[in-house]
TrEMBL record:
This is Ferrous iron transport protein B. It is a multi-pass membrane protein. Residues 30-198 form the FeoB-type G domain. One of its GO terms (cellular component) is plasma membrane.
């Protein structure tokens, strides 16, 4: 693309105020504005400012994957509909999210009309990388409004940008803003309200065969239809250059034009083998000249960022710092949350004791206290750990450090045949595998995307954290190893185990079923920024809120179902003699108390409690849940698990954290006096039928290893089915992960017993 001839003269002209046309006449629908821009340019922050909607605002390339909508109320009273599109560097898509951007801006996206205006957000600190997309948008021939974002940061870095010169050169309005501080937002909203004219046509130098081919296709395009409102020449070039897997653009062209595109591509390959590179080369020549004229550096470039990056991205120091930082995070997750967790645990127990006397003895009291309160309360106890984990993740994300983490991990990823692009979905999977799997849409290589989907569930998601915390708190002694806390070290090791398992599985898949070439990954390292406290706290609140919401819906429902399955059917043949004996013992206790024989009354009450526990144990063993647990007990006994843990394993397929509420329900049914002993204490002191300890630290480690590696979330399976459009890969994932979990758990437990650790 060549810059219009008047660019050579604008340096001598004074900056002019942008004059936009009067507001458009009233429309039958709201004016649709698409917000486009490169990754990490501040689109989401601006969208947040304009709409008031809470949205994830992160300093990380590619964080916005799906299209998001909102409404912007203007001073005049009119309302604009805004679309926040995924970040992209170009309209030549290389991944599914970039296809969405192109299709929306060209008007071929299903159920989305052609935008009336494109609001292009540019990062003013790196215009040379941002203007390529701007050049392509101008060529479309539709109205474009440029928001020159992060002007405050540009000034701090010593950059003086002439917005007026940029506007005249591009033929589109340019408004300097800072979405973070709100500077210039009012002027931007005023510009959005007015009718923005389409940018003037541009010319660029192209080889004659390529220009002739594009003009030939342009003449074949229909005068009506989805592409009729665009520049015909641009659409023709897009059709020639669009060779991806998605067919949405080529399908919008007439059938004769589609055939001609295939013919002309073959002809150009023969005449000019490098013809595909002429478009970006021409654009970047123009961009280099434009940036040189419009940008002035008024003070030397700061070198602090480079010095920091030399350390944080160093081949040796970088990974060490990353691992140490992660270790500090998990130490903090365990140590800081413990006092709050203990307080919540005590509160849940007190709530059960308070409500129990108000309910009639029998099934209703058991349902409310043993089922609902015990089940949900056991999971809610772990909210502080969830909140602290996301506090650290959000701080690192907003500060720009996680981009460096992705750069560091790229070396490891390349070793198994993936690229650093896979790090983003895998990192998201530490929160939940579902958004992590959906984030793989940013990976353009199909085999790499499928591999990343299959290994994402190995990352220890937040749903596993309550299980880890329960078992570590019950069986791992709270002592220090060197300068590290042992429970925190064990927790960190579990996360590392999941990462290593993912790496090994990816290595195997990329050399067998999903063999392919090693991908190239280009990553932009964003500048370091001070995290927004509001954004961080909103992230923590939303993540913790989702966890609590899940506890109040899914886990509550599962707890009630499990209470029923663990309470019925009754076994009158075995229980009736014990109930008669219990009645006699309670009568003896009452008589002894009436006569003032305190010692005998206490002994009889203890005997009655023992009989009640025996009745509860028989009822649980003969219940539906007990039968299911005993059915799978032969398969899990070699791992150190009994039938009660078998019940928890089966229920955890609904959601992993349900394992905690299941164990609480199972053990609370035998806790007839409603003592305040926590679930951790109950597990620690549980006895087997022979009178010995039911569980040991070795069993706890075996169970945690199983939970690290097993696929126990039906929601994850459903998302994998949707993303792969096949049941083949979800079934393969479930069999592979659960088989690997069983083998690893078997090795841990049996190996530990051979070493005398059982």
């Amino acid at each position: 693309m060549s810059i219009p001839s008047e660019l050579a003269e604008v340096e001598s002209k004074p900056a002019v105020r942008l004059e936009l046309r009067d507001p458009a006449p009233r429309r039958s629908r709201r004016k649709l504005v698409a917000i486009a821009g490169g990754p990490n340019c501040g689109k989401s922050t601006l969208f947040n400012k304009l709409t008031g909607l809470r949205q994830k605002v992160a300093n990380y390339p590619g964080v916005t994957v799906e299209k998001k909508a909102g409404f912007c109320a203007l001073r005049s009273g009119s309302v604009l509909e805004l679309l926040d599109l995924p970040g992209t560097y170009s309209l030549r898509p290389g991944s599914p999210d970039e296809v969405v951007v192109r299709d929306v801006l060209l008007g071929v996206q299903a159920h989305t009309p052609l935008p009336d205006l494109t609001l292009l957000v540019l990062d003013s600190t790196c215009l040379d990388r941002q203007l390529y997309l701007c050049m392509q948008l101008i060529e479309i021939g539709r109205p474009v409004l440029v928001a020159l974002n992060m002007m405050d940061t540009a000034r701090d870095e010593g950059l003086d940008i002439d917005a007026g010169l940029l506007s005249r050169a591009l033929g589109a309005p340019v408004v300097p803003i800072s979405a973070r501080t709100g500077s210039g937002i009012a002027q931007l909203m005023e510009a959005m309200e007015r009718e923005v004219p389409p940018p003037r046509p541009v010319t660029r130098g192209l080889p004659e065969p390529l220009r002739d081919a594009a003009e030939r296709i342009a003449r074949m395009l229909a005068p009506v239809g989805p592409l009729a409102a665009l520049s015909r020449f641009h659409v023709a070039m897009a059709l020639l250059l669009d060779e991806g897997e998605e067919d949405s653009l080529i399908d919008a062209a007439p059938i004769p034009a589609r055939r001609e595109v295939m013919t002309l591509r073959a002809r150009l390959d023969a005449e000019i083998p490098e013809w595909r590179s002429h478009e970006p080369i021409g654009h970047y020549h123009a961009i280099e000249e434009l940036v040189r004229k419009a940008t002035l550096r008024v003070k030397p470039e700061a070198k602090l960022r480079e010095r920091i990056d030399r350390v944080l991205t160093h081949r040796v120091l970088g990974p060490l710092i990353f691992v140490l930082l992660m270790a500090v995070v998990f130490q903090s997750v365990f140590m800081w949350a413990t006092p709050i967790m203990n307080a919540i645990d005590a509160g849940v127990s007190a709530l059960g004791r308070f409500i129990a006397p108000a309910l009639p003895a029998g099934p209703i009291r058991s349902l409310v206290v043993d089922g609902a309160i015990a089940g949900v309360g056991a999971v809610v106890t772990f909210v502080p750990q969830i909140a602290i984990l996301f506090l650290f993740i959000s701080l690192m994300e907003d500060s720009g450090y996680l981009a460096r983490g992705a750069f560091i991990m790229d070396r490891l990823m390349r070793g198994v045949g993936l690229s650093g692009r896979a790090f983003i979905p895998l990192l998201s999977s530490f929160a939940c595998a579902i958004p992590g799997i959906m984030a793989t849409r940013t990976i353009d290589n199909r085999r790499d995307r499928l591999t990343t989907i299959l290994i994402a569930p190995f990352m220890s998601c937040s749903a596993r954290l309550p299980v880890y915390a329960l078992l570590i708190g019950a069986f791992i002694p709270n002592r220090t190893v060197g300068f590290l806390n042992l429970p925190g070290l064990v927790l960190f090791s579990l996360y590392v185990l999941g990462i290593l398992a993912a790496v090994l599985v990816a290595w195997a898949l990329k050399r067998t079923a999903l063999r392919g070439s090693r991908p190239l990954y280009v990553m932009e390292l964003p500048p370091y920024r001070l995290p927004s406290l509001r954004s961080v706290l909103l992230t923590v609140r939303d993540r913790a809120g989702l966890f609590v919401q899940k506890a109040g819906t899914v886990i509550l429902a599962v707890s009630i179902v499990l209470w029923f399955l663990a309470s019925y059917p009754k076994s009158p043949g075995r229980v009736l003699p014990l109930e008669k004996r219990l009645e006699a013992v309670e009568d003896d206790a009452a008589k002894a108390a009436a006569r003032g024989w305190a010692a005998e009354a206490g002994a009889k009450k203890a005997e009655a409690a023992q009989i009640q526990n025996e009745i509860a144990g028989i009822s649980l063993r003969d219940s539906f849940a007990g039968r299911a647990g005993r059915l799978i007990e032969p398969a899990i006994a070699p791992l150190g698990f009994d039938w009660k843990i078998g019940i928890a394993l089966l229920s955890s397929f609904a959601a992993r954290e349900v394992m905690v509420s299941t164990m609480a329900t199972v053990y609370n049914l035998g806790d007839v006096d409603q003592t305040s002993v926590s679930l951790r204490e109950k597990l620690r002191h549980a006895e087997n039928p022979r009178g010995g300890k039911a569980y040991s630290p070795l069993m706890a480690v075996s169970l945690m290893v199983f939970f690290v590696l097993a696929c126990q979330c039906m929601s994850t399976v459903a998302v994998v089915r949707r993303e792969t459009n096949s049941w083949r890969w979800p079934i393969f994932m479930v069999v592979m992960m659960n088989g690997l979990a069983w083998i690893a758990s078997l090795a841990v437990y049996q190996g530990g017993k051979l070493m005398g650790l059982g």
